Amino acid sequence: MDSIKIIEILAYTIPSVITGAVAYYLFNSHFKDQQNTRQWLIQKDNQKIALPLRLQAYERLTLLMERIQPSHILARINPVSNDKNEYENYIIAHIEQEFEHNIAQQIYVSDKCWTIIVTAKNAIVQMIRLAAKSEKVTNADELRTFVITELLEKASPGATALAFIKNEVAELW
After folding, report:
1. What contacts 24+ positions apart, CB below 8 Å, involve 88-92?
2. What is the C-alpha separation between 61 and 98, in angstroms, rounded?
3. Distance CA 40, CA 38 (A)
4. What are phi and psi of 155, to 5 degrees?
5. DSSP the chain
6. Alpha-carbon distance 5 to 18, whole Å?
7. 13, 74, 129, 135: which sits with the fewest CB atoms below 10 Å from its CB?
8. Over the stretch 84-124, which tens digit does the pLDDT of each residue have?
9. pLDDT, tens digit, for every residue of 19-43?
10. What is the pLDDT, as a whole number, of residue 152?
11. DSSP string of 59-97, one letter each residue
12. What is the mean pLDDT of the chain?
């Protein structure tokens, strides 16, 4: 008689346990799907706000790279005196000022992009410093000519950074 009772209890318990497990699995799957949908909608709404800010950051960084290109900055900033060291420091101060003005844009771009921009800025500063130390350069006008001539022979670091910015913006679409 005990074995019949046990079989009878199992006959009622096993289907109810299976039904409970299936219900748990279905409800759990449904809640996870709902949570993923909510997160996707939140991300979609956030992207509507963030995308214009990111694009503006890329625009400003593009403008930064254009403004600190040696050929552009040397054409825009005339020497105040004939002293090459004074002109070198004046140009580098302008480059640093442009960079500091746009430093907050780094939160909207990738780390790799920001690293390339910082590297390009430092390479341009280094290029101007090396040109000023050259024995061929004796005054501010010769410094301008030397840097621009050197740029004709090599690719500018700013051009490399601009190409990377363009590629990264293209990935946003």
Report:
1. 88/128, 88/129, 88/131, 88/132, 88/143, 91/128, 92/125, 92/128, 92/129
2. 10
3. 5
4. -80, 140
5. -HHHHHHHHHHHHHHHHHHHHHHHHHHHHHHHHHHHHHHHHHHHHHHHHHHHHHHHHHHHHHHHHHHTSHHHHHHHS--SSS-HHHHHHHHHHHHHHHHHHTGGGGGGS-HHHHHHHHHHHHHHHHHHHHHHH-TT--SHHHHHHHHHHHHHHS--HHHHHHHHHHHHHHHH-
6. 20
7. 135
8. 999 999 999 999 999 999 999 999 999 999 999 999 999 99
9. 999 999 999 999 999 999 988 887 7
10. 73
11. HHHHHHHHHTSHHHHHHHS--SSS-HHHHHHHHHHHHHH
12. 90
Taking CA 120 as the corner, what is the angle to CA 115 and CA 122, rounded to the nearest 5 degrees? 95
Amino acid at 22: V
Polymer length of the chain: 173
Q: How confident is the model at residue 4 (pLDDT cuts 50, 70, 90)?
A: confident
CA dist., res. 89 & res. 143, Å (int): 12
Neighbours of 105 (CB within 10 A): 20
Q: What is the largest CA-CA distance in the chain?
A: 115
